[in-house]
Amino acid sequence: MRSKSVVALMVSAAVIAGSVGRASADAGDVIGGVIGGVIGGVIVNEANKRQQPRTRTVVRRAPAVSSATRAANRETQTALNYFSFPAGTPDGVMGRNTRAAISQYQSHMGYPVTGQLTTFERDFLISSYYRAQSGGYATTQLIAQQPNGPRGLLTLYRNEAAGIATPQPAPAPGTTVTVVTPAVPVQQAQPETEVAAPAETAPVIPSFGAVTEAKSMASHCNSINLLTSSNGGLTNVSDVSDPAFALSEQFCLARTFAIANGEALARQIPNVTLAQMDEQCGAFAPLMQAEVSALSLSQRDAVLAEVGDFIRGTGQTPAQLSSTATICLSSGYRTDNPEVAMASALLLVGLGEAVYGEVLGHHLTEGFGAAQRNDLALPWYEVAISALDGGSPGVFAPGQADRTQLLRVAVGLDAAPQGAQVVPAFNVPTGN
Predict the structure, then answer these.
(1) pTM > 0.90
(2) Residue 431 CB burial class (10 angstroms; 0-12, 13-18, ≥19)
């Protein structure tokens, strides 16, 4: 019965799916089709495909591309996703979805719609992306003021470069507007000899940091699993001699169960392949970019407050969001995409499924898609362990009887057995 309800909810989500731009909270708008429509939209697409006559498709292999070209392509896809032109998972392959996203970008900017970026079009897209990234909270405020969300930034940046004033959106009813009188009244002409002072621009923080290669969760877990096998099996609570290794084992175990749980749920949706779901989940992650980034910077409760605002803005039911997040958590781990995994886990914890806080603790401990912050990781472990102690069913390795106690010991909440190592990073003082 539950599986039928999940499928029904997902199908209904596709009907109400709308634009994916983030709306201003003050305006009370909702984000139509952000999460629940992710999987439901695939179902509708598949139904439409079955109504079309079948044609024979000739598959032509794309020529091999260099690593530099693939990296540039990933950069383009990331920028397109950020500005709400869904290009799918940034994999460096300029496929149909990326071409469609480029066409949407070109149409929005008034360029000829070709699906192929000119040098100028790409340079403007990429420079705008990095400018938005460096703007921090100021960028978030600008996006909230744009009727079409992140896409409005591109129009704003273009007009600013051309010296064109961008009309501001009308204030919401009941909003108090402060009118600033210009220093020089309009009706008074300035003397010809007077030169207007150049407009002040907000300082931009330069970025000279080294580019580091993303850590592979799959590769890490392959190494951990080999060591576990050579050690005769998983570490148990009675022989925790290396807490960090024990946590790595539990992360890889949780990853395996998350993949299996999501795939089991995905199989209940007919006529939709895992590849199609992976594509949809990859497009969903950029929508929670701010919340995922906050994981490496803010305390747990502050991050959850942001996630709660995001959830309320979607207009989707908890059941829709939970089902999609479970499937996308599986997708994130299966495709080695930590941003998708973290966004999905954040949604689940924000929906009250606190046991998923464990995987967020693992990401912060291991540095997968996040900064290595053991001090910020501990509260996420705590919320998961507290839920398990309170009787919440375990979703990862439920048959491992001492798993909760093992986690408590490994993160330093309980005393380690005699002779065990400690994890001093979890005991960083919070003062000063």
Answers:
(1) no
(2) exposed
